[in-house]
Na+/H+ antiporter subunit E (Actinomadura darangshiensis), 177 residues
Amino acid sequence: MNAALRRTGSRLGMAGWLLAVWLLLWGRIDALTVIGGVIAVVLAYAVSRLPVVPLAARVRPVRLAEAALEFAWDLVASSIVIGWHALRAPRRIQGAIIEVDARSRSEIILLAVTTSISLRPGTLLVDLDWDRSILRIHAMPVRSPREAGAARDGVLGTERRLMRALVTPDDTRPEER
């Protein structure tokens, strides 16, 4: 896919997303609301430089469903762990800043990973070095190097699942495209 087509697809995707948010904010779908949303999107593009959203070259639906189920399981499990520690000994919960070297160079994968870990109870993105694909996360509870390694492995597992589900040009070798 050439760069101009990819940029156009990305802009249309962002426009569709903005229109969907507009409709959700209004809470109804009728001709006047849709026309107003289209005008708002056109104005947003005219007065600002909205970023180009990277696209996935290929989406694997089964792998994406697996990633979504594993994310749901991670939400439940981390909520239980954090809740248990908060009720048992709230003053003794220890956290750590953990550096994770991501394998992906794709902005869409890194964005999905950082969103995923920030939505989970007990983890939060602190810093992201886009150039080197290094994530710094705050994780809790972390009381030992072994638990820090487990938190790092959890982030890398999320990245691995998302890389299998969303094939991007930045992460594929030329012979795989």
